[in-house]
Amino acid sequence: MNFDTRGQKVLIFENDRAVLEMLQIRFDVAGYHIMCARNGLAAIEMLGVMRPDAVVMEMALPEADGFRILEVIRERYGKPPFPILIMGRALSAEDIRRAVALGARDCLAKPFSGADALARVSRLLQRRTEGGASTAAAAAAPAHMQSVAI
């Protein structure tokens, strides 16, 4: 990967300790600055004091779910100023549509590998620095796919 990740802040919101540790290790080794929250209220608080370069978020967080967090981001910024990768074990097509409408840019179904998550975030950040244009083909990807690029 030729993309320079030094100093880029990625917030990871995940309540499963094993998944969180796997993501922390992968992103840390790749050179990202990682901050984590294990519930929705902590995630909302963290977003109030930090402006990340990207967010990786489990949708089924306790205390405030991913939809509430996306709503808070929309209330604060309008269109999110950073890419958001959502993830979940049982995301329906409607969940994905709703998350995209609230500003999510990509979706990853669980289970997934750390390499997959890292590649997705790297691609989102690279697109952002290159102008952020997403292709119509990616946006039209079938909702039944394991992962959907938005």
Global morphology? globular
- Largest sheet: number of strands, sense, barrel closure: 6 strands, mixed
Classify the fold: give the CATH topology: Rossmann fold
Q: What proportion of the residues is helical, as a percent range?
A: 40-55%
* Count of extended strands: 6
Total count of domains = 1
The count of helical stretches stands at 6
Quaternary class: single chain
How many angstroms separate the termini?
Answer: 21 Å
Radius of gyration: 14 Å
Strand order in the sheet with the most strands: 2-1-3-4-5-6
Structural category is alpha/beta
CATH architecture: 3-Layer(aba) Sandwich
The CATH homologous superfamily is called Response regulator
> Strand content of the residues, in percent?
15-25%
The helix/strand series, from N terminus to C terminus, equals EHEHEHEHEHHE
Contiguous runs where pLDDT drops below 50 for at least 5 residues: 132-150
The overall average pLDDT, rounded, is: 85
Summary, kept brief:
This protein is an alpha/beta fold and 150 residues long. The chain has a single domain, classed as Rossmann fold (3-Layer(aba) Sandwich). The chain has helices spanning 17-29, 40-49, 66-77, 93-101, 114-129, 136-139; strands at residues 9-13, 33-37, 54-58, 84-88, 106-109, 147-149.
Descriptive terms for the model:
18% strand; Rossmann fold; 150 residues; 6-stranded mixed beta sheet; disordered C terminus; alpha/beta; 6 helices
